Amino acid sequence: MHPVTTEHYLALSAGLLLIGTIGVLTRRNIVVILMSIELILNAVNINLIAFSHAWHNMGGQVFAIFVITDAVAEAAVGLGILIALFRNKETVQADEIDLLKW
Amino acid sequence: MNFLDLIWLIPLFPLAGAVLMLLTGKLLDPQPPSGVAVAPGVEQSGAGPRPANSHEHAPHPGPLQNLIRILCPGMVLASFIFSAGAVWQLAHLSNRVHQVIQFTWIAAMPFHMANGHLATFQVDWGFLLDPLSSVMILVVTGVGFLIHVYATGYMAHDNGFYRFFGYLNLFVFFMLMLVLANNYTLLFVGWEGVGLCSYLLIGFYFHKKSAADAGKKAFIVNRVGDTGFVLGMLLMLSVLGTVRFTDVNAALRSGQFPVEAGYGVLTAMALLMFFGATGKSAQVPLYVWLPDAMEGPTPVSALIHAATMVTAGVYMVARSSALFQLAPVAGMWVAGIGAFTAILAATIALVQNDIKRVLAYSTVSQLGYMFLALGVGAYWVAIFHLFTHAFFKALLFLGSGSVIHAVGGEQDMRYMGALRKKIPVTHATMLVGSVAISGIPGLAGFFSKDEILWQAFSSPKGSTALWLVGLVTAAMTAFYMWRLMSMTFYGQSRVKPEVAAHVHESPPVMTWPLIALAAGSVLGGWLGVPKLWTVFGEGFRAFPRWLEPMFELSGHESEHPASAEWSLMILSVAVAAGGISLAYYLYSKRPDIPDRILARFKPLHTVLYNKWYVDEIYDFLFVNGLCKGGGSAMAEFDRTVVDGGVNGAGWLTRASATLSMWWDTWIVDGAVRFTSFSVKLLSYPACLIESGRVQTYALFVVVGLLAFLGYYIAR
Is residue A21 situated within a structural domain? Predict the structure, then answer.
């Protein structure tokens, strides 16, 4: 029976990051994009916890708590922007919002 | 009282009267409600006589009209008193020149004279009293006062009473400025002022077209002459650097003047001045206005167009005697023009039927005599004739006014005759005037006219021809005056029946001035009896002794024996007597003969009656030829050259504006737009990667991150 090592955590983290990144880049619904961002943040959290455990340093766990707090604030702001956007454009599709250019 | 220092007051009296009249006269002398001056009965020639009882219909004089009656002549009387006082005191001065400079009128202006020297042009408001101007102011104020008094009676029933006296007083003011001025520029002020008053008074009956036209004619003809005067004055300024009489005369007499003022320049100056005088003093070629000026009321004819204003030219030439002495050619012209005018006007006077026109041409003729005297260098004689002429010609004009008054406005002598008994005072005084002008010894005209004839004969500048012209003119003078007297006072009455019943003598206010002037016409000449009349003392030669120091005189008298002068004197008297008796015989005793003569010499009579057609010639040459022809030429010039220039400039502007607009649109704007276009073109590829989608940008970030990551891993 192989023990779960740090490498396993890192692999899981990398997988989550990949899935999150692809989700951000490819999904059209902004809600889904926000969800993908949560995946990326959680990949980071897994990293932080894994290294904290491996090196017996509690800083990583503290930092993870900060990131979770940060993610909540980010989701709140993101969803607020989304609602304002919907009220003006009546859409939540990212590809239909293309004003950010010259 | 020191009158000499108060001479500046002399012109101010009539000015005050004029200002008062012209500003407040309407209140003093209310007009009839119609507002337009009613056509006066007198002065209407040819329009039929006014009913002689029209006095009853005349507008009732305003209650304050009497104030005007006293004020206006009173102002002139005050001037006369001050003039007499000043002249009396002048006689006691050793040099007999008194100059009062009130203030500087035109401040000093530096300018370069013709020779390049710097001079200052400064004009004083100054008065000069010397023997010459003293004679003039006495004549102007003395005769002027009598005529004012006469006019209060003559104009009593005319509307515009205050206007008439306002103008008349204004005239006296300007005339006094003219003769008292101490420089040519101030003299010119008076000169133009009297011209203005002459215009206003000739056109006094302005509702009558002929009167308004005559006023305009007088004014315009005078302007022609004034051109000469102004040019002469400017020439004088540019070569002598001053226009003050004393300075000019001193420079010319002493020879202390710039060499540039050579013989030719002085002659030109003198001739230009003389041309000015021909306008004001009615000489050939500018005499044509004076006969027409008879449209004015008769007192105006007497004062302005016989006694004073028309002698301004004579005064001016006498004042410039130093200049004319240095320019003998100019003197020759003066004498020639004077003699020519004298005989030309006399021939016209021979056949005129209008009583005032005869006198008008007589005036022109007598003025010609004065210029004849000036031209031969006998300046004092000219002034002497001016002096005596002022008396007898004013008397004759006022007398003719009295006659016209008597016959209810009729001026045509063919409708007069046998008036002697009906208007005895007028007849007696006019008789004196006619004898005086004809040159019968003992009366004023003889002394001055005979002296002129003698000077024309004996002076170095004179000649037998000039004398002969003068003599013939004297004969004609006697003839036309006695024709006038005969047709008016003697022979058969030809007065229209409806007028005849009302013929009446003029009121005393009109006859007394006549009597005073008649006295002057008798006595005036005794101030200058001929030198030969040694019976009389020096006192009888007061006039020449008073004036002669003013002028340079050459001692030419001795060249001619006394017998020559005696015989010429007798000849001229004989000629005058012949003219008188011939005219008296023809027109009083045998009025049928003139008609037969007239029938025989019809063409000559027609030419004379139409005044040698001079007016027609002037109309053709100048009025129609020069003025109207010139006018249409000017109009053509305006249309083609002036308007053409304007239109051409407009077209050019429009063309250049079009060009400029093309340049703006295509070149300037084109450059700007080309710049922006090229920048846009260059930036186009960069635009292609900017889709505006957040995810695209995120993709670039990820790709970039991966690239960096790959780079560091591969290293």
Answer: yes
In a domain, A100, yes or no: no
Number of structural domains in chain A: 1
Burial tier of B427 (Cβ tally within 10 Å: 0-12, 13-18, 19+): buried
Q: What is the dihedral of CA B162, B163, B164, B166, to 10 degrees?
A: 80
Q: For B23, list phi and psi in degrees, rounded to 5.
A: -90, -40
Give which of B696, B697, B700, B705 to mutate to test A binding, by max A Cβ within 10 Å: B696
Q: Token pair of B392, please?
A: 């007898």
A93 contact B CB<8A: no
Residue A1, Cβ neighbours under 10 Å: how many?
2
Q: Is residue B285 reached through a cis peptide bond, with omega within 30 degrees of 0 on the bond before it?
A: yes
Q: What is the pLDDT of residue A46?
A: 94
Q: Is A97 on the interface with B (CB under 8 A)?
A: yes
The answer to whether residue A102 is domain-embedded is no
SS3 of residue B690 by DSSP: coil
CA distance B275 to B183: 19
CA distance B691 to chain A (A): 6
Task: Tell me the C-alpha distance between B419 and B421, whole Å.
Answer: 6
| Contact between B444 and B391 (Cβ < 8 Å) | yes
Find the CATH number of the domain harbouring A69: 1.10.287.3510
- ipTM comes to 0.87
User: Residue A11 is part of which domain span?
Assistant: 6-95
Q: How near does any CA of chain A get to the CA of B665, in Å?
A: 30
B712 — pLDDT class (breaks 50, 70, 90): very high
Dist. CA B436–CA B430, nearest whole Å: 9
- Is the four-CA dihedral B25, B27, B31, B35 of positive or negative sign? positive
Give the separation between CA B280 and CA B634, rounded to whole angstroms.
30
Q: Which of A:9-48 have CB within 8 Å of B?
A: 21, 24-26, 33
Residue-wise pLDDT tens digits, B610-626: 888 888 888 888 888 78
Residue A88 lies in a domain: yes
| This prediction's pTM | 0.76
Q: Consecutive sets of 10 residues in chain A, 102 residues long: mean pLDDT of each?
A: 86 94 92 93 94 92 94 93 91 85 68
Per-residue pLDDT of B94-134, as tens digits, reads 888 899 998 899 888 888 887 778 888 888 899 999 999 99
User: What backbone torsions phi and psi does residue B285 show, to the nearest 5 degrees?
Assistant: -100, 5
User: A21, A27, A91: best mutation site toward chain B, by most B Cβ within 10 Å?
Assistant: A21
The residues, ordered by sequence, that sit 6+ positions from B184 with a Cβ below 8 Å of its Cβ are B233, B236, B243, B245, B248
Question: Out of B691, B698, B699, whose CB is closest to A101?
Answer: B691
